Amino acid sequence: MRKLFVLLLTLTIGLQINANEPVTLVDKNYNSILINESSLSTAPSTEYDLSIMNLQVDLLGIIFFGPQITLDFQFANMIAVGPYVRWHYAGVVYQGIVTDWFSAETTTSLASYSVGGQAKFLIPIGSGQHRPYIVTGFEKSFGSDWEDFGDKYIYEYETNIFHFGAGYRMLTGGSFNLSASIAVGFAQDTKSIGYYEYGEDYTDSYHLESRVIPIIQLMLGWQLGR
User: Fold this and answer.
1) Which of 40, 92, 118, 130 has the highest local Cβ count within 10 Å?
2) Residue 76 burial (CB < 10 Å; 0-12/13-18/19+)?
3) Beta strand pairing call for 152-171 and 176-196
4) Which residue has the higher pLDDT, 35 or 94?
5) Which of 40, 49, 38 is nearest to 80 (CA)?
6) Do the beta carbons of residue 108 and residue 61 sit within 8 Å?
7) Among candidates 144, 157, 151, which has minimal Cα distance to 200?
8) How far, in Å, CA of 68 to CA of 59, rounded?
């Protein structure tokens, strides 16, 4: 009778496994143990999961406020946080603003740049290949330029910029990805001074301005750690 009971129990377990239903096992002391298959497995990874890091370059930076390089650290398959640096000197719009749209005799310093950090929430659609996202961040901008009046007159300025926006990222089966985004930045000057490089030890202070900055980016990315 006991052998028949064990045989029936074995057949019952087999049928339950095939039906993907919870399974009841019996230990040597005939205590019931409930095992649910879903508790023994995790969601399978796909080729469109986010990797550990993503290196990005802004292809439109040279047109606007300078090329930007970003290194995102990605986790939970939808969150990316990381630093970035932007080189203002190589941006046409930035150069235009500083030189009064190329009509002034002002020379932009090579050491005009921003450093910042941002967070993105990349929402997976379906398999995760297509991901709309929202982004927010902060950057500190440093810049300088000069005019030659016989003695070089130097302007130095610093700005805090808060920004937020939305975008879309398309992943491929490999490491390559492409992102497009539009954002709004709120800029507040924190420093604006001018002085002669050689001459009297005197510094001119200028009005600190606030402004709204549109930000459009097309980011070419490469996932690392796949």
Assistant:
1) 118
2) exposed
3) antiparallel
4) 94
5) 49
6) no
7) 151
8) 8
If we measure between CA atoms, which residue out of 84, 65, 75 comes closest to residue 185? Answer: 65
Tell me, what's the pLDDT at 45?
65
Query: Strand 130-148 vs strand 113-122: parallel, antiparallel, or unpaired?
Result: antiparallel
Q: Among residues of the chain, what percentage have pLDDT more than 90?
A: 65
* Phi/psi at 104 (5° precision): -95, 160
Question: Residue 192's closest CA among 162, 159, 152, 147?
Answer: 159
Residue written as token pair 């095939």: 18
pTM of the shown model: 0.76
Read off the pLDDT band of 69 (50, 70, 90): very high
Give the total residue count for the chain.
226
Q: Give CA–CA dist 192/19, Å, rounded.
A: 72
Q: Is 93 left (phi over 0), alpha (psi -120 to 50) or beta?
A: alpha
- For residue 149, what are its two tokens? 């009046």
